[in-house]
Write a structure and sequence with these properties.
This protein is an alpha+beta fold and 259 residues long. Helix content is 49%, strand content 15%. The protein has two domains: 2-147, no CATH class; 199-254, Homeodomain-like (Arc Repressor Mutant, subunit A, Orthogonal Bundle), CATH 1.10.10. The radius of gyration is 22 Å and the shape is elongated.
Length: 259
């Protein structure tokens, strides 16, 4: 087996992190099984070439959590093309809820867009090269992006902004920048991210404060509280304990060994 990574189509770089191609028929030049991040959402296309040159479609699935490791056990006539997505992108592109994608079982692409998937399967069946297959899969993703562009832009922009600045004022700033009413924003965000904007903001805020405590990048806890947007030190301590069940002071003494 031979495998290689390649950059996604230039119009998909905001959404697709990398494309991994594995070919069972190619001579091996790699010593190890391909590396991929466990838990990263993925689109997996697996095909097997018949003696007559037709590609049988073995798998065309979406994985919201992790891809089974045995998927890389290829036969000589098989090819796997894997698209690994940035956070929240898979849900947006295919208009699927984060809750549905969080399930361990894969989602057959035919369930999401039957007409487009049937056309894709026909293209894949008669593709002469792996590159032709990638072009067909790119075409599907570009079609989905065209259909879901507004929702994708909303989620990418809002999650990025909240991650960069998790203070309490960020949500109103995002609403103003996106020209959205709060109800619409809440609905779209909850569907594709899986939590409300307020919950996501608090998670990001905690992460920033936890990183500072963990690395010791502060003189006193009050500095951490104000730097990460908490109203005061007591709010910061309550939040820290809510997420870790331990106070920042106790964490610095013993870590999270009890958790």
């Amino acid at each position: 087996m031979q495998y290689r990574y390649q950059k996604p189509h230039r119009s998909l770089t905001k959404y697709v992190k990398t494309v991994l191609i594995a070919e069972g028929f190619a001579p091996s030049v790699n010593d190890k099984v391909p590396l991929f991040t466990n838990g990263m959402p993925a689109l997996i296309c697996s095909t097997a070439r018949t003696p007559t040159g037709i590609e049988n479609i073995l798998q065309l699935n979406l994985f919201g959590t992790s891809v089974p490791p045995d998927i890389w056990d290829l036969k000589k006539n098989e090819t796997i093309i894997s698209y690994f997505f940035n956070p929240f992108s898979l849900a947006c592109l295919f208009n699927l809820s984060a809750v549905e994608l969080a399930k361990k079982s894969p989602i057959d692409l035919s369930r999401v867009n039957p007409q487009k998937t049937n056309a894709l399967k026909t293209q894949l069946s008669y593709a002469k090269t792996t590159e032709n297959k990638v072009e067909s899969l790119d075409s599907l993703l570009l079609h989905q992006l065209n259909q879901q562009k507004r929702e994708c832009e909303i989620i990418i922009y809002s999650t990025d902004q909240i991650m960069l600045n998790s203070g309490t004022e960020i949500l109103s700033d995002v609403l103003e920048r996106l020209s959205l009413n709060e109800r619409t924003f809440q609905r779209i965000f909850k569907k594709f991210v899986g939590v409300t904007p307020s919950q996501y903001r608090r998670i990001c805020q905690f992460k920033h404060s936890f990183d500072q405590v963990r690395t010791g990048q502060y003189d006193k806890l009050t500095d951490v509280a104000y730097k990460t947007g908490f109203a005061d030190q007591s709010h910061f301590i309550r939040s820290f304990k809510e997420f870790t069940e331990i106070t920042p002071k106790d964490y610095k003494k013993s870590g999270l060994k009890r958790k």
